Amino acid sequence: MASNFIARTIRWSAWTGCEAGLEHVEISPVDGGIELAGVVIGQEETLRFGLTYRVRVDSAWRTRDVRLRTAAGRVLHLESNGQGIWRMNGAEQPDLQGCLDVDIQATPVTNTLPIRRLGLKAGESLEIRLCYIAVPSLGVSPHDQRYTALEPDRLYRFESLDSDFTADLPVDQDGFVRDYPGLFRRLP
Q1: What is the pTM of this model?
Q2: Angle 186-76-78 (CA atoms, 0-180°, nearest 5)?
Q3: Which of 35, 56, 107, 177 would staple 30 via disulfide (CB 3.0–4.6 Å)?
């Protein structure tokens, strides 16, 4: 699955315009998996932030290594065995047990991880538990979400089971979000 993946670059702006946020991510095959390396300049409520991240997934799109750094100097390193056992900055994290993916609040790129990993058929829906990373605090907590394939390889419904948030996400041929209504717009 990942072995035939072609490297690419994607950019998004905040839905309300570039002044509120901009992201650049480079996606590359590496060591039998995929690496997502990006930079986000954004704003959460009135707080402006800068963030760099690097996410590595294996050939089955299971998250294995996540590194984040804010411009203010906060650092986070998550490691997973791909089976739901996590370490954060070197320490085991029992509260994250069972999580297979990460969701970095400031980017739509992490929605691709469960979309690719689950391989849902038309109308199929699955609930997942993942590591939600708040930005800019870099706080990590387990969150429950549901993905539904409305049109496989084209349109997925995302639902946060910890809130009432729902979004229909159009994706490209590789499962990367085109636009995230109300939050992010893909740039040409």
Answers
A1: 0.94
A2: 90
A3: 35
